[in-house]
Amino acid sequence: METKGLVEQSPPLSAHEALVEANRCLYCYDAPCTHACPTHIDVPRFIKKIATGNLNGSARAIFEANLLGATCSRVCPVEELCEGACVLGSEHKPIMIGQLQRFAMDHAYRNGSQFFQVATTTGKKVAVIGSGPAGLSCAGELAKQGHQVTIFEKRELAGGLSTYGIIVLREPIEVAQAEVDMIERLGVQMQRNAELGRNLGFGDLRRNFNCIFLSLGLGVTPELGIPGEELIIDGLSYIERSKMNGNRMKVGREVVVIGAGNTAIDCATIARRLGANRVTMVYRRSAEEITAYPHEFEFVKKEGVEFRFLAQPARVLSSDGHVAGLECVRTELGSPDSSGRRAPSSVPGSEFTIPGDQVIKAIGQKKPALAAMLGLEMNNNFIKVDADFETSIAGVFAGGDCIRAKNAASTVMAVQDGKLAAMAIHRRIQNG
User: Which residues is 390 bridged to in the sheet?
Assistant: First the structure.
């Protein structure tokens, strides 16, 4: 197989292409695309400004609703959101909203445009734990109001999943870091290598800050509980290696990926593009139950990835400490479980082996363990918040994946959480 490598999948629009595409827009009144966007970007407004050559104005319109517009233009499932709601989609091709947003954002960052000035300080202090999309969004919005915001990030690089967990084909690391830099230019202080519960005390934060916002994200992939699991690679770790080491990371010749969500598809894509001869995704349910977006499912099939549905991993086979394959048992589906999907059960005596020299698991993430340690009230193992994103501890707010007990987690939803939480925190500070 020809190795394609890892580069951003969609090339940017040229100025001419962007102008032609922007002029296709009908600039709908009360536009469905704006309603479909979780951050409610005024889509007709920013596209109209592209059509008139006002690229800074277009970028400003996006930033006013979404400070992480560059990331969202790349990673949002636009087919399910804004473009899926485009009125031209029923009989024509929907407007390329995501690509036009990227065009405006890239212009703004390329030219070093500054759209918000550092505000006069209010003297009030807010701590943000975690620098993922929710944390950056919340911090930036609060800084615009003049509050002194400090982000505490446990890792060396800020940006959360945008930096470490989104495949390069969708978002290069440079895009995430440019957004981090922009948030810092708003006056936000960033303390890296600062982890709550390790070298950062919750009590100290409560004493030293007026409010706290938790942007904890989620944890590592859960255990499968099968023999040989120590030889399995965590899916998020696999994606991180691909972002940090690029085309130099070690990839097996026959790779098996356990799971069928968007992260599993990213892992399979990495393996395939970096030279694996064969990549097989193993899923214990059928194709109808996969959690990946339909367009991602179609994409990975075109990459040459194979699927083994109705298959449950049973043990990792090894030889001299090296992976030799994955033993599975066939499953059959019964009544729906708590997820609403039909529950799988093993078929006795149906064992079979999938050969492979590298096994990766991407079966979701553990719930935020830190939340229980802090004594926060939980909802189905996620942090419970009220309509203002306030937790069971007064003055402590939360947003992003760590609160997403219902509906699918996504970058754009995390950005909106951070924005709305910032509004609530600002009101709390104003009211004393």
Answer: 397
Residue 432's pLDDT band, with cuts at 50, 70 and 90, is confident
Strand order in the sheet with 189-191: 189-191, 148-152, 125-129, 211-214, 396-398
Alpha-helical (H) ranges within 303-397 are: 369-373
| Calpha distance 332→343 (Å, rounded) | 8
Neighbours of 189 (CB within 10 A): 14
Q: Are strands 254-258 and 278-282 parallel, antiparallel or unpaired?
A: parallel
Q: Which two tokens stand for residue 138?
A: 């919340």
Give the integer Cα–Cα distance in Å for 240 and 164: 5
Kindly state the DSSP code that residue 280 receives in the 8-state scheme. Answer: E
Q: Give dist(CA 214, CA 417) in Å, integer.
A: 11
Nearest to 129 by CA among 220, 211, 39, 237: 211
- Do the Cβ atoms of 159 and 132 come closer than 8 Å? yes
Return the SS3 of 59: helix
> Both ends of the chain: CA-CA distance in Å?
64
Please give the Cα distance from 102 to 222 (Å, whole number).
34
Separation of CA 230 from chain center? 26
Token pair recorded at residue 153: 């990030």
CA dist 43 → 97, 185, 390 (Å): 8, 26, 30
Q: Could you give the CA distance from residue 396 to residue 129 in angstroms, rounded to a whole number?
A: 11
Which residues pair with residue 329 across a beta bridge? 312
User: Considering just the CA atoms, what is the radius of gyration of the chain in Å?
Assistant: 23
Q: In whole angstroms, give the CA distance from residue 244 to residue 208.
A: 35
Q: How far is CA 297 from CA 94, 246, 258, 310, in A?
A: 20, 24, 15, 16
Q: CB-based contacts of 404: which residues, under 8 Å, 6+ apart?
A: 382, 413
DSSP 3-state assignment of 302?
helix
pLDDT category at 1 given cuts 50, 70, 90 is very low
Q: Determine the 3-state secondary structure of 369 from DSSP.
A: helix
pLDDT of 273-303, one tens digit each? 999 999 999 999 999 999 898 999 999 999 9
**Could you tell me the pTM of the whole model?**
0.94
Rounded average pLDDT over 401-416: 88
The neighbouring-strand residues paired with 336 are 342
DSSP string, 184-207: HHTT-EEE-S--BTTTB-HHHHHH
Instruction: Say if residue 321 is exposed, middle or buried (CB neighbours under 10 Å; 0-12, 13-18, 19+).
Output: exposed
Please state, in angstroms and rounded to a whole number, the distance separating the CA atoms of residues 432 and 428. 6
Given the DSSP bridges, would you call strands 352-355 and 322-336 parallel, antiparallel or unpaired?
Answer: antiparallel
